[in-house]
Model the fold of this input.
Amino acid sequence: AGVLVSLTMMTSGAMAQTIGFSQIGSESGWRAAETTLTRQQAEERGIDLKFADAQQKQENQIKALRSFIAQGVDAILLAPVVATGWDSVLEEAKEAEIPVVLLDRMVDSSKDLYLTAVGSDLVHEGAVAGQWLVDTVAGKPCNVVELQGTTGSSPAIDRKTGFENAIKGHDNIKITRSQTGDFTRTKGKEVMESFLKAEGGGGDICALYAHNDDMAVGAIQAIKEAGLKPGEDILVVSIDAVPDIFKAMAAGEANATVELTPNMAGPAFDALAAYMKDGTMPEKFIQTESKLYTQADDPQGEYDRRKDLGY
Ligand code: GYE
Done:
């Protein structure tokens, strides 16, 4: 029986896997695209994907992980809505010998509590956005308003840090207001409206830095409703490179975005396949690239290339 089992195990590299995916929700176009691509890749690879939408709540993610552990899934994908509070449930997954792969956001738990993390260098993304503004205003005074991502999430923390690092030493650029828009269009619009009101109509707001394109798209609406020209009166720089930011760029209403690939699942499934086949340990962090796009980079063409990817 031993030989039979080992033969079965050896040929079962492609054995059907059940993988639990705790997704944050669908707060942005980017998140929707990540979900679409993850489902597609699971399908292509014959993976039985158990999908749980947490509606932005950490307690729902923790519940989902406990349910996956109880089901005895082969592996877990987790896009952690915030960076803290994961130790106990990740310990439970480790106890159950279920590998966890983080997608697009990080946790502050120790690295031995997850197999690997797939994501971008979030600090670098903020720095690319900040450097673009430094180069664009070229020494002229510029008051910036900032729409932060979800409070306590690693992208909100790191993208703020990166942007501030880039503008350090350029005293002409000042962040005058900064508040979370929770990565959504609706909140982005609401908070931008409050910024415009607080700044007496927004006449002295030179630029908006939004931690994602969806908040920027919402803010663009607010800027227009205030009678100002987004992309001209108020420069707009954000992150994700979703189709609708390219649509805004093509209309001259947005200026720059830093690309974040929504395909985090590909590298995650590859790392899991290798690990589950023969114990190959992946790097602890599998980094995806961050590319700057501006109005000079054929925004209409970029929109066309992305519009059918499930955003
Ligand atoms: O930028 C945003 C999504 O976690 C880096 O989450 C990701 C961010 C992304 O809501 O659109």
